[in-house]
Amino acid sequence: MRHFISVNQLSVKEIHSLLDTAESLRNENKKVNDQIFAANLFFEPSTRTKMSFIVAQRKLGLEVLDLHEDISSTRKGETLYDTAKTFESIGANLLIVRHHADTWFEDLQDQISIPIINGGAGKAEHPTQCLLDLLTLYQEFGRLRGLNVVIVGDIKHSRVARSNANALKRLGAKVSLCAAPGFEDHSLDFPYITIDEATKKCDALMLLRIQHERHTTNSFIDDYLKNYGLTKEREKRMQKHAIILHPAPINRGVEIDSDLVECERSRIFKQMNNGVFIRMAIMIELLQEWGLLNENIIEKRE
Ligand code: CP
């Protein structure tokens, strides 16, 4: 058979032969399977999280499955649950999911029998970003207890703010928030301070992206940097040791002056580098927990 275009081209004997071959492959697959498939299901745009997961997966020797949402059956109305079940059925061992719903994982985690990693949930959670931010702070200061961390920007729409504020508090950091009028979220129980107070007092200034896609107007943009962003003047007033973080992508000239993105205080690209290793660590932890980590992974890492 040089091409397979139609079932009509197969004889009855050939059909039976193919069924027999597939069945024996399925039985064989149950006995020996040292491949681990990680599936990246991103239903919202991503560069850093998705690509650093892929780098991390390849470094661990995993087989990478990458759903392209815009040309997937999601476009035919398939749900997240059915998509996840599909990947489980075809042999994925690990799912990385980003979805616009704040609580997409609530039902899924009980109904899917492979590990799931949250790559971003609506406005609610971005746990891998949180861990890479914590690692960046540890690298810089060697501790979190007592650090003045100010989270600045579009708090209302930020999953990073929600994950980071709570984790930092639990780890002993002193967390404050800073937001333009209308960008606050008072369900978060942290004090609000002004951008001028924030830049003067912080050890780490954790800037957030203005999430244009979650706003109905951007009429505030023209004066945003001057009124609420990190200008060069404000940066000069930061403490000598203070650092700048941002999860990115960055709106240059909006939440931060473009010239500061790679300034001496900036750890923005360091955060991205840390993302690879945090994601490797999380995947190793889960694969071990689920009894999926075999010698191959360790060997391939060495
Ligand atoms: N920080 C972050 O989540 O970036 P991406 O949206 O590009 O993944």
From TrEMBL:
InterPro entries: Asp/Orn_carbamoyltranf_P-bd, Asp/Orn_carbamoylTrfase, Asp/Orn_carbamoylTrfase_sf, Asp_carbamoyltransf, Asp_carbamoyltransf_Asp/Orn-bd. Belongs to the aspartate/ornithine carbamoyltransferase superfamily. ATCase family. It holds the Pfam family OTCace. This is Aspartate carbamoyltransferase. Keywords: Pyrimidine biosynthesis, Transferase. Heterododecamer (2C3:3R2) of six catalytic PyrB chains organized as two trimers (C3), and six regulatory PyrI chains organized as three dimers (R2). Catalyzes the condensation of carbamoyl phosphate and aspartate to form carbamoyl aspartate and inorganic phosphate, the committed step in the de novo pyrimidine nucleotide biosynthesis pathway. It is an enzyme of class 2 (transferase). Pathway: Pyrimidine metabolism; UMP biosynthesis via de novo pathway; (S)-dihydroorotate from bicarbonate: step 2/3. L-aspartate binds at K76, R159, R209. It catalyses: carbamoyl phosphate + L-aspartate = N-carbamoyl-L-aspartate + phosphate + H(+). GO terms for molecular function: aspartate carbamoyltransferase activity. It comes from the Bacteria. The lineage of its organism: Bacteria, Bacillati, Bacillota, Bacilli, Bacillales. SUPFAM superfamilies: Aspartate/ornithine carbamoyltransferase. Carbamoyl phosphate binds at R48, T49, R98, H126, Q129, A248, P249. It comes from Virgibacillus halodenitrificans. Its EC number is 2.1.3.2. Residues 2-138 form the Aspartate/ornithine carbamoyltransferase carbamoyl-P binding domain. Residues 146-284 form the Aspartate/ornithine carbamoyltransferase Asp/Orn-binding domain.
